Amino acid sequence: MTILVIAEHDNKVLAPATLNTVAAAAKIGGDVHVLVAGQGAGAVAEAAAKIAGVAKVLAADNAAYAHQLPENVAPLVAELGKGYSHILAAATSNGKNILPRVAAALDVDQISEIISVESADTFKRPIYAGNAIATVQSNAAVKVITVRATGFDPVAAEGGSAAVEAVGAAHDAGISSFVNEELAKSDRPELTAAKIVVSGGRGMQNGDNFKHLYALADKLGAAVGASRAAVDAGFVPNDMQVGQTGKIVAPQLYIAVGISGAIQHLAGMKDSKVIVAINKDEEAPIFQVADYGLVADLFEAIPELERLV
Amino acid sequence: MKVLVAVKRAIDPNVKVRVKADGSDVELNGVKMALNPFCEIAVEEAIRLKEKGLASEVVVVSVGTSAAQEQLRTALALGADRALLVETDAVLEPLNVAKYLSKVIDQEKPQLILFGKQAIDQENNQVGQMVAQLIGSGQATYASAVDHVDGQWVVEREVDGGSQVVALAMPAVVTCDLRLNQPRYASLPNIMKAKKKPLEIIAADTLGASVKEHARLLGVVPPAVRKAGINVGSVAELVDKLKNVAGVI
């Protein structure tokens, strides 16, 4: 068995979710190859070659792959992927965008967002907003799988010495083009990789009040998240949303501030190791999943918490 | 131009699901069903495109059992012009659904095909992308804005770090994210009118799609239950617990 892992990157830096995906590949067993498709992504290929347990890196460098357009990347992955037993990508917006196209090109179903590997053909994945865990067995010739990063501890980023092999294949479907992008700038750790996450909800009342959470987060070295209510109310941008329709996080510590705890939000954070809820309403459902609950006015509790930690 | 919207009958998002006692699946008997919320957003977008004069006809299509007619009527009440049901009792595997839909697209020839980004039951997030591959068109997943400029669909997408804009040749597949729009409610007169709108039933096996079984569901379990937490009386006590008991800060 040989497994192809699609590297997640921005042409400059290898994203941490790739390490969790390689960990899932290692659980399946067999040689692990990593594909870096991009433009000017030499540094990413070098970083991928250093990942512990990676046997080979395939580097496809072409202008057609610069923005990970699925119309161009999927045919490349499908072409290379025919020789593999499994094709894995992280369940990031890129992975989820590209891999179903790959699966359709190979005439197989995809298995989405696995959280555990039972055997080479059997996997566990959450369904119904995480309210049930399904075990599925795939009979596909090539198993195409997206991996929920929080389900697997990352492998070491250093220690490997894989060979980097250039892939010449260039696919440009010519039916889509990149126009522009706007990425939120943040010096704080990336939400899905942070050890501590501080999240605010509707109880924050306005965007300006998030400064209290930023101050606390900076003291803790934490990332800042938000509930859908806070995003919809315009307090913070939508890439901060934690939940079924936002990001799935599983940090060591999750501090939910002014968040009631709707099932759609819980789906994104209930696998955190320790959950703290700070809320005025002692009936809020968030207290049912919290390890430590504090019924208090957040505008008093948060500054005090920042002073004491 | 014509817009096709694919919709799914799924569990009502406010229902708390239960796993069956024998662990074979979740319990869906007697559970309230609804139009998948992301599909509602897709229908709303199609109707807005029609109201803007960009779309001339909005066709909704669903793959599933006869019961899905209820959700197609809902879409008709929201403003769709006609509906198609690809009827099958089989388990709805994403690639099979995508194959049926691509056959329907071959017949209907829409210039835009809208999907929800995922169904809230199986949470696969695959069918839109698969259809785009099967019909050889471009795709824009997780759309937060859709526009038509110079013969192309220009779509803003929600991505992990922020937002991205892509341009797609026609026909194109767009899957809709939560922030694309706020779906309207169906008015009573429109619900009555929807009963008279055309709803065509197509037997799935007449479409000539090469479907097959790809995976087996071996069982379903409830998620691990978190052990009960405690309430603390003060911020100082919270900090003490986090430092000395949980050891996380």
TrEMBL record, chain B:
Q: Which cofactor does it need?
A: AMP
GO BP, sorted A to Z: carboxylic acid catabolic process
Q: Which GO terms describe its molecular function?
A: electron transfer activity
- PROSITE patterns the UniProt entry points to: ETF_BETA (PS01065)
Q: Which CDD domains match?
A: ETF_beta (cd01714)
InterPro entries per UniProt: ET-Flavoprotein_bsu_CS (IPR000049), ETF_a/b_N (IPR014730), ETF_b (IPR012255), ETF_beta_N (IPR033948), Rossmann-like_a/b/a_fold (IPR014729)
The family database entries (SMART domains) matched by this protein are listed as: ETF (SM00893)
The protein's superkingdom reads: Bacteria
Coiled coil (UniProt feature): none
Q: Which Pfam families match?
A: ETF
Keyword terms, alphabetized: Electron transport, Transport
Q: Where is the Electron transfer flavoprotein alpha/beta-subunit N-terminal domain?
A: 23-211
Query: What does it do?
Result: The electron transfer flavoprotein serves as a specific electron acceptor for other dehydrogenases. It transfers the electrons to the main respiratory chain via ETF-ubiquinone oxidoreductase (ETF dehydrogenase).
Q: Subunit comment for this entry?
A: Heterodimer of an alpha and a beta subunit.
Q: Give the family this protein belongs to, as stated in its UniProt record.
A: Belongs to the ETF beta-subunit/FixA family.
- According to UniProt, the name of this protein is Electron transfer flavoprotein subunit beta
